[in-house]
Amino acid sequence: MRKRFNKNIIIKLSALIIVLTIMIGVTIAILPWVNSLNTTQGREDLERFIESKKAVGILIFIGLQAFQVIIPVIPPIQIIGGALFGTFWGSVFSCIGLYVGMGIVFGLVRILGYPFVEAFVNKKDLKRFKFLREPDKVALIFFVIYLIPAMPKDAMSFLAPLTSMDKKTYFLYVLPARLPLVVLSVAFGASIIDGNYSLAVILSIIMIDIGIIGFIFRDKVIDYFEKKTKSKKQSVQRDELKSNQNMKKTGLILLISSVILTIIDLIFMATDYFSKCRVEFLQYYNLGSKNQIIYFITNYGLYWFISVAVIGIVAFLVSIKIKKKK
Q1: 8 A C-beta contact, residue 227 and residue 236
Q2: Among the listed residues 153, 71, 83, the one whose alpha carbon sits nearest the alpha carbon of residue 119
Q3: 139, 162, 181 — which closes off a domain?
Q4: Closest CA to 314 of 181, 223, 217
Q5: pLDDT one-digit tens code per residue, 8-61
Q6: Is 325 domain-assigned?
Q7: Residue 226 placed within a domain
Q8: How far apart, in whole angstroms, are the C-alpha atoms of residue 84 and residue 193?
Q9: How many domains is the chain partitioned into structurally?
Q10: Which carries the bigger pLDDT value, residue 226 or residue 9?
Q11: Please, which residues have CB within 8 angstroms of residue 287's CB and are 6 or more apart in sequence?
Q12: Which end of the chain is more exposed for a tag (fewer CB within 10 A), N or C?
C-alpha cells in the first residue's frame, strides 16, 4: 500500500511538472502577442487577421477565450468577439471557448489534484474558500458566486474540481451562471462596432454598476455561505463584522464622490461650451471630434454618476440595518 501510494504521488508530481512546464512555455511564447491585445493597434490587427482567415479566425478566437480562463492575462476577449461576429455568434463562440477552458481546468485539477491548484491560486483565496470543501450546498454556492460580478471567478474555477460536485452538475447547472455577463460583454462590443452608442452606454452602465454591486456585497455573500457550512462560527463572525464595516465605508465613498461628480457635471452642462458640443454631436451623431466625445461622456456620464450614488445609498443603508440586527 505504501509503495502504491508513493508511486501515485510520483506520477502526479511528474505530470504536474510536465503540465506546468508546457503551460509556462506556451505562455512565455505568446505573451508578447497577448500583451498587444491591451493596445488599440493590437486589437485591430487581431480583428483584421480573424476577418481574413474566417474559420481559422473563429478557432483562434475560441482558443483565446479558453486561454483567458486558464491564464487570465488577456483583456475581456468577449468585447472583441461582439465586434467581430455580432451579438449572437460572438456569444456562441465566447461560450464555447469558456466551456473549453473550464473543461481543461476541471480535468487537470481532477487528475493532478491540490498541488496544481496551488500553482495558480494565491494562498489568500485558498484559505478564504477553504469552507467550499464541505459538501453542503456546494453547487448552489458556486452558482451564486459565478453569477455575481467582481467575485474571484478565476480562483473558483480551479477550486470547483476539488469539491464533491460531479461533472454533470458543474457543467450543466453551475457554469451557465457565468454566461449572462459574457453575453452582455459581447453585446457591448457589437453595439460599438455598429455605432449604436446609446445601447453601448446603457450596457456599459449596467456592467459597471453590477460590477460595483458585486464588489460591495461579495464579502457578505461569501460570509453568508461560510456561515451555512461547518466553518468555525467565531471566525465567520469576525469576517462578517469586517465586511460590514467595509460595505459602510465603500457606500459612503461612492455616495459622496458620485454627488460631487454629479454637481460638477451639471455645472458644466449649463455652460455655452457644452451647448456647442451638444449641437455638434446631434448634427453628425458620431464621435469624430473632441467636442462630440466631451458631450457624449458628460451627457451619459450623468446617468452613471446618479446610478452609482443610488448604489452607495443602498450599501450604506444595508450596513446600518445589519448593524442594528446584531
Answers
A1: yes
A2: 71
A3: 181
A4: 217
A5: 555 555 655 665 565 555 555 555 555 565 566 666 676 676 667 667 778 888
A6: yes
A7: no
A8: 8
A9: 2
A10: 226
A11: 197, 293, 296
A12: N
